[in-house]
Amino acid sequence: MPLTKNSKVSSNKWIRTLSDRGQTVVPKSIRDYLNVKGGDSLEWHVNENGDVIVKPKKKVSVMDSYGILKPEKSVNDVDQAIRDSKKVFAKKKHKEGRL
């Protein structure tokens, strides 16, 4: 029976065999329901009742974080800070007689 987002997953039961390498196959209807495909990560948890809970791990890309941190300085501010530090470094070297 195919699952939909309105399906009650707990009312369905699948039995799969564990391979010698500890692998099993997630039924297609569950993969479709969870919107996961080969290469996606699953999180496994055991709750206090001993039930195993498997959930898809949220995919996070760099672009999901874009704009979270606002720059405090502009590019011009950074360029000016570099110029200023070069001047301070040059003065220090000159004072020490190494320039």
TrEMBL record:
One term of GO molecular function: DNA binding
> Source taxonomy lineage?
Bacteria, Bacillati, Bacillota, Bacilli, Bacillales
What the entry lists under SMART domains is as follows: SpoVT_AbrB (SM00966)
Organism listed in the record: Pueribacillus theae
Domain SpoVT-AbrB positions? 16-62
Which intervals of the chain form a coiled coil?
none
Pfam families found in the cross-reference section: MazE_antitoxin (PF04014)
User: By what name is this protein known?
Assistant: AbrB family transcriptional regulator
Which InterPro entries does UniProt cross-reference here? Repressor-like_regulatory (IPR052975), SpoVT-AbrB_dom (IPR007159), SpoVT-AbrB_sf (IPR037914)
What is the superkingdom listed in this entry's lineage? Answer: Bacteria
